Queue: 3 jobs
Job 1
Amino acid sequence: MRYMLFVATDPEAEPYDAEQDDIQDWVKEVYGSGKGVVGDRLREPQDARVVRVRGDDLLVTDGPFTESKEWIAGFDILECASLDEAVEIASRHPMARFGRIEVREFWTLGLDSGA
């Protein structure tokens, strides 16, 4: 099963510590084990665009879709046997300490791959 880790900032979390929070160690472990599928950092919210279609109108606005001090800083997709395994892997991510991680299982569309 595939799981998406939404890696988010959290202004109430512990401060970042470069010695303790080396993301490269986590990446080597998770992606080296084959559990990591793909992941990356995301640009800051002010670089985002929000796209909406309302009737015949295309609405594009700058910045995040919500006023929040928290924002999605990156993502990882994992291939795991269970939600418990995905949560355990997420718990070792440095951002689990100085940010927050949301774990969600993919909800596949069920499209016929032969089409």
Note: The chain has three helices and six strands.
Job 2
Amino acid sequence: MKKSMTFFAAFFLIFTVASIFSGCSNKNSQPISDTQFALDTYCTISIYDNVPKKVLDEGFKAIKDVEDKMSVTIKNSEVNQINENAGIRPVKVSPDTFYVIKKAVHFSDVEKGYFDITVGPIVKLWNIGTDKAKVPSPEEIKAKLPLVNYKDIILDEKNMTIMLKNKGMSIDLGGIAKGYAADKVAQVLKKEGVKHAIINLGGDVLTIGTKPDGGNWRIGIQTPFKPRGEYLGIVEVSNKAVVTSGVYERYFKKDGKLYHHILNPFTGYPVDNHLYSVTIITDTSIDGDALSKIFVIGLEEGLKLAESLPGVQAIFVTDDKKVYITSGLKGNFKVTDPEYTLMTK
């Protein structure tokens, strides 16, 4: 995959959610672990079971397989084939790619269009996270906005084909593919008998089982704009995904203004709603990845939506350093940074 992101920007992503492993009483709880660059970020798999290293290797193969099929920077990927044939013909894809795009369409409905994988033409205009990042002109954005509409994705499950209705449209799975990759890694590891593990794909954290001593994993939520690994609070989970989207992950500054990578598909501009980050806690990483784009909806409506979804919890961090949580996290989320305040209703 082309490393379009700068080293430091990509490296920073791995600490968007910092995993805290302290407190394991099992003396044999030191993991076998590896970190590799894939899906435009640094991916770490840590296994706390006595398994051969080949299990780690199989986990990274699963990530690479997702990347080869779904990356927009790999010329012959299935997603690029869909994009190149937009408005021309349907493209036959693998069950993996079909599943992810079908899921993306579902979550676009859930999030009322604020999550939209057809935002590709706008992503390319901004190029945030690359050395070509720039502020597009209003005319450029206006010209591309009509190409953004997830309802123009034509799914044919019988023939396993996908087509974009109009020429110039393009899909970008950056908001959901990492989540799916984490789930695929978990499947591989569980098949090999792994019962205790952490999968961290650039801040998409997925836990398998509990810590070796039977306790919950303690996951730190990254403090916005502070050095990697500094966390504002801790949540305890087992067998859960913890996924964060934040304005501090990828951004650039122009004339003193910060432009981040979370784009509003209706306006074509980075979201400006006084949120720093949104963290989703759910059973699967693909769901957490897609739902973390509740960020775009904003605090009040985003909280309402998160509360309405079964099996979903959320943490909202605002730019005035206040933290709001869904009701299911009461008693299970602790703010540890004195600069931040947990708000209660």
Note: Residues 53-70 form the longest helix (18 residues).
Job 3
Amino acid sequence: MTDVFEASAEHEQVVFCHDAASGLRAIIALHSTALGPGLGGTRFYPYASTDDALRDVLNLSRGMTYKNALAGLDLGGGKAVIIGDPATGKTEQLLRAYGRFVQSLNGRYYTACDVGTYSEDMDVVARESRFVTGRTTAHGGAGDSSVLTAYGVFQGMRASAETIWGEPTLAGRIVGIAGVGKVGRHLVRHLTEDGATVVVTDVNADAVLRVREEFPAVKVVASTDALLAEQLDVYSPNALGGALTDDVVETLTARIVCGGANNQLAHTGVEKRLEERGILYAPDYCVNSGGVIQVADELEGFSFERAQQRASGIFETTRRVFALAKSDGVPPAIAADRLAERRIREVGRLRGVYLG
């Protein structure tokens, strides 16, 4: 068993949530509340072990600190995981039990959707907690946050295209999308409207079928390996994390990597190898922050137009990351970290630990 204190040394708080009657086994991790309450989704996933779940929630919550800081939000970083198969274990009883644990943190953590959870689930969680966002439009919420996540990724991709080819457009470029579920499907629409040629793959046959029906011109390949074998201009990982391994980087033909998946770099050092190979990496938490911008806007009384306007700022933020990377002589991933850490340091010192 992992030493929790050692593993979470840079985190403020880790909460293990257990309700035997409903079968709830969850972990909530608060990485930092220096900028405000921690905001991050709830992932419902059949982890092989508690150690795997803990490792994931710690990585994801740290990522949310940086994502929220770089997005200019007055929010810190938090995340939650529920251990189990959402197809068989998700019940009203379990979600409401989870909501009680969220409520017990008294506003230090705001939850929302993530892999395995949906706006309808957040409505159930909200019956036990005030600190829930990403709810359905029927309950005054923002609905599906993947809409603006994809929009933000597209803005980041436009900024990347400008850096490489001099124009902020993907027209005439070949873009490979790995994962066409929530985010990837919306991204296909933005790219086809912009004039790009799109190649997709997904392990979920139904997701591929939906995209093929909506966008008949899209090319479908059988696997991620087959996608990587294509002559791509842009590679866009939009499934689970760890997509950019050493082997993937060595086989990439794309000049740009820009996608909606979290924690794309399989390990520290991959960002340097990308740069060595002349591949521009748009840091994942920079370009995929449209979703968190959307659910954060809900806390003010949701306006899609206002949230979309804020998410359009991802274009300029991505530009700033590339500019700092060039001036400091570092990969964009390190430049993004420096911008986020600067804001946490300069603004966070005024706030300290958020009490709720």
Note: The chain has 16 helices and eleven strands.
